[in-house]
Design brief:
Strand order of the largest sheet: 1-2
Radius of gyration: 28 Å
Distance between the termini: 76 Å
Shape: elongated
Order of helices and strands: HHHHHHHHHHHEHEH
Number of strands: 2
Structural class: mainly alpha
Number of helices: 13
Strand content: under 5%
Helix content: 55-70%
C-alpha cells in the first residue's frame, strides 16, 4: 500500500510540473493578446534590432486581424503615422514602415515622403511608398526626386520604375542622358521598366557607344549615326536607330526586350520585366 501511495504522489508531482511548464510557455502569448495596441507601440518605440521581437510579432498579428475591417485598418494606420512622427528608434520606425507597406494608404504619404528628405530614414520611407497604391504616392516620389541626395535619388528612381509611373518620364530622361553614371544607369532601367512610348520612340532601341572611341560630342554622334542626344561620358544613350527586326504593332514591352538584347549589354544588366 505504501508503494502505491508513493507512486500516486510521484504522478501528481509530475502532472503539476507539466502544468507549470505549460503555463510558463503560454503566458507570453496570453499576455500579448491582452496588451493593447498602444502599449505594444510604446514597446516598439524602444525596440532595437538585437532585442526580442515579441511586441513586434503581436503588432503584426494585430495588423493581420485589422485588415478584415477597413475602419480598423485606417484607425491603426493613424496610430502608425503618429508613431513615425515620434522619437521612436530607427528599428521601430523600420518595422512600422514595413507594416504600412502592407496596409498603408495615401493617408501615410505625407509622413513617408517627409522621411525621404533625411538620409537616415529615406530608405525606410521609400520602402513603404513603393508598395502603397495611388497617384498621390507617385506624385510625392516625383516631387522628392530633385530634392534628394544622390543615393536617395537612385532609390526613388528605382521605385518610380517599379511602379511604372509614366508621368515620371520627363524627369527621368534627362537623368538617363546625364553625366553621373549611377543616376544615368538607374534612370535608364527605370525607363525600360515603364516602357512608355514617350520614354523611347516606337521602333527604336538602345545604342551602344564606345566612350574610348568617342573623344568628343561630334565623334560620339558619329559612332552611332542618328543619335538623338550625344552620349554622356562612359555610358550608353538612347538613340534613334531603328530595330531592324521590329514587327509592326507588336507590344512595346517586346520591343524593349529586343532593344535590351541588341544593346550588347551583359545579360545581368539587361532590362528585366517582372
Amino acid at each position: 500500500m505504501e508503494f502505491v501511495t508513493r507512486v500516486d504522489e510521484m504522478n501528481t508531482m509530475r502532472t503539476n510540473a507539466i502544468r507549470i511548464a505549460a503555463i510558463a510557455l503560454l503566458s507570453p502569448l496570453l499576455q500579448a493578446q491582452t496588451v493593447s495596441i498602444d502599449d505594444l507601440l510604446a514597446q516598439a518605440a524602444k525596440w532595437q534590432y538585437e532585442t526580442s521581437r515579441q511586441s513586434l510579432q503581436a503588432i503584426s498579428e494585430a495588423v493581420a486581424k485589422a485588415q478584415r475591417s477597413p475602419a480598423e485598418t485606417r484607425a491603426m494606420e493613424q496610430k502608425f503615422i503618429a508613431f513615425l512622427k515620434s522619437d521612436a528608434t530607427p528599428g521601430g520606425k523600420d518595422f512600422i514602415c514595413k507594416q504600412l507597406s502592407v496596409m498603408g494608404s495615401e493617408a501615410s504619404v505625407p509622413v513617408l515622403s517627409a522621411m525621404l528628405a533625411d538620409p537616415k530614414t529615406a530608405e525606410l520611407g521609400r520602402y513603404a511608398l513603393e508598395r502603397i497604391p495611388g497617384e498621390g504616392v507617385d506624385r510625392a516620389l516625383r516631387e522628392a526626386l530633385p530634392k534628394s541626395g544622390e543615393r536617395a535619388r537612385i532609390g526613388i528612381i528605382n521605385t518610380l520604375g517599379i511602379r511604372r509611373d509614366r508621368n515620371s518620364v520627363p524627369a527621368l530622361r534627362p537623368l538617363a542622358l546625364g553625366s553621373q553614371p549611377a543616376l544615368a544607369s538607374a534612370a535608364l532601367f527605370a525607363l525600360a521598366r515603364i516602357a512608355d512610348p514617350t520614354a523611347l520612340p516606337p521602333g527604336r532601341c538602345f545604342g551602344r557607344i564606345d566612350p574610348l572611341a568617342a573623344r568628343d560630342r561630334t565623334e560620339q554622334a558619329t559612332a552611332c549615326p542618328g543619335t538623338l542626344h550625344p552620349a554622356p561620358p562612359r555610358f550608353r544613350t538612347l538613340v534613334a536607330r531603328p530595330c531592324a527586326d521590329t514587327v509592326a504593332g507588336e507590344p512595346q514591352e517586346v520591343q524593349w526586350r529586343r532593344a535590351s538584347r541588341q544593346s550588347g549589354a551583359p545579360s545581368g544588366q539587361r532590362a528585366r520585366w517582372d
